[in-house]
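[job 4471] stage=fold_predict status=RUNNING
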Amino acid sequence: MMLLDFVYYGFIAVVFIQVIFYLGIFGKFAFKKPSKESRKIVDVSVIICAKNEAENLKNFLPSIISQDYPNFEIVLINDASSDDTLDVMETFANENANIKIVDVKNIEAFWGNKKYALTLGIKASKNEHLLFTDADCKPVSKYWIQEMCSQFNDEKSIVLGYGAYSKIKKSFLNKIIRFETLVTALQYFSFAKIGLPYMGVGRNLAYAKAEFFKANGFINHIKIRSGDDDLFINQVATKKNTAISFSKKSFTISKPKTKFKDWIKQKRRHISTANHYKLHHKILLTLIYCTQLLFWILAIILFAFTFNWEIVLVIFLTRIIIQFIVFGKTSKKLGENDLIALLPILEVFLITIQFVIFINNLISKPNHWK
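[job 4471] inference complete, writing structure tokens
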């Protein structure tokens, strides 16, 4: 019985911590109303790094070219592709004067390193403000550049955006992918809102070129294959210089993985970069994950033994209701409403997958971005 007492009080402590996270941190974004910006116009270089993305460029590049914005260039980086990526880029460049091509050849020191290719593209760009997306990403509106760049001002030099994934009907994997994306966005938007920005996603991210050169580019983590987005932001973002953009017109949308093994491979690479975050970020993110995991484990144990089950049920439902409210508000903001009905199932599945990925990453490390 003493062991169950320990589990019981541990469960209360875990729920208490979770409620603090949901109401004190995540709620800052969930209940935030969009602010009306002055729509400052800045010259922008849209940077797209592509490796073997010929077909995606054909499909998605027109949505970048047709953006309603007065002055922007598009910097297309061909990262040593072996398909027709360069030919596709040249075709678009011949028809659009604002497209610049940077053709990157592999060199031994930086083979397969996206950061090297991006560095060359950034140096080739002519504008002070840089807006990044991927070759398989499509802005959801023609005002994408306008919405993202409206957040720049004399103080804000970094803008974190939302990169969604398209919906696939009757696909549980698709729901897991989009739920994980929703959870990640809730976390990095919320932490930025309270003055602790720790990451952004390269599918939709903007920053001033001055931030890049002030940090000596990616030099601090150049040997880490991934992290051109989250590790860089983790290094340079502060309470004062970081803004968020969550207007639906500022979103991008990408094609999600359709095979479970491909998604796991992608997530292994992404999760491996978290080991290189600043210590206080790692502590907070670890605490979030551990309390999520313990919430379900301890609840199952207490319900299985019907230990103080009436109180446990009230505590359990309180946490679930708070979670539903916060995620409901967030999913409405980010256009992921269909995920809410499956929230507990998706959460348990994602927690389990993340644990498996963590163990796999301890055994072997993912290396290349493509």
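[job 4471] summary: The chain has a mean pLDDT of 92.
[job 4471] exit 0
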